[in-house]
Design brief:
The chain has 224 residues and is of the alpha+beta class. The chain folds into two domains: 4-101, Pseudouridine synthase I, catalytic domain, N-terminal subdomain (Alpha-Beta Plaits, 2-Layer Sandwich); 109-207, 2-Layer Sandwich (Alpha-Beta Plaits). The protein contains five helices and ten strands, in the order E-H-E-E-H-E-E-H-E-E-E-E-H-H-E. The chain has helices at residues 21-35, 78-88, 126-135, 181-187, 192-195; strands at residues 4-12, 51-52, 62-72, 93-101, 109-117, 140-143, 149-152, 157-162, 166-172, 201-207. Strands 1, 2, 3, 4, 5, 8, 9 and 10 form an eight-stranded mixed β-sheet that branches. Strands 6-7 form a two-stranded antiparallel ribbon. Strand 8 (157-162) and strand 9 (166-172) form a beta hairpin. Helix 1 (21-35) packs across helix 2. The N and C termini lie far apart (42 Å).
Length: 224
Amino acid sequence: MVRAKVRIRFRKTGDLRLISHHDLMRCFERMLRRAGLPFHCTEGFNPKPRLIFPLPLPLGIIGCREVAELELEDDVSAAEVRDRLARCAPAGLEIVDAQRMDGTKTVHARLACYRIRVPPDRLDALPQRIAALMDESTCWVERQRPQRRKLDVRPYLRDLRVLPDALEMDLVVTPGGTARPEEVLGLLGLGDLLEKGAVFERTRLELDDEPALASARVGAPRAD
C-alpha cells in the first residue's frame, strides 16, 4: 500500500540541541499526537510513528535544516502538516517547511555541511592547513566509540572552506558511514575550540533525491 509521505525540514537549536536523537523522536511523537495528524505506525508491541531521519543529528550540534520523513494514513496537505506541527513545537524546535514526496522511496543523506566559528587570530593559518590536509591520500583518526578502531576519513572530505569568521566543511555520507566534524577539526589543529565552548552547526543536509549543490573552497585547491 502506497501511503502519503511528507518531508519535514526543521531547525533544532538552543537547549534542545543537548537532547539525544532518541529524545528528539519522542518529542516528535508527542507533537504528532497533539497535532492530531493521521500518521502511520510501525507494527509490533510498541507501535511508533513511521518517522524516518536520514542522518540523525549528533548531540550538541545545532541543526539548521534537518530532515524527517513522515508517513500518513490519510491525505493531508504538506502545508497543513507544517502548520499543525509548528503550533505544537517546543522552544528550540522550529518547523521550517514541509513538502509531499514519493511514498515508495526511502531517502538517504549523501552530504552534510557543518560550520563552526573560529577566532580571528587562528584564521590566517587555516588555508595552508586545509591545503595540506586535502593533499593527503589518507587521514587517519582513532575512534573510541562504539569500539576503539582507526579510520581513514579522507574519502569523506569533500570540501573545506574558510569564511570570514568560521570554518565550513562538506562531508560525504555513505551507507558505510561518514567523518565526524570534530575529527576534521582535530586534523586541522583546532580540536580545542570545542573545549572552549565553540558549537557546530549543521547548515545543510543534502539528500540523494535532490540536485547536488556546488561548493567552492577558499584558500585551497579543490580535490576531486
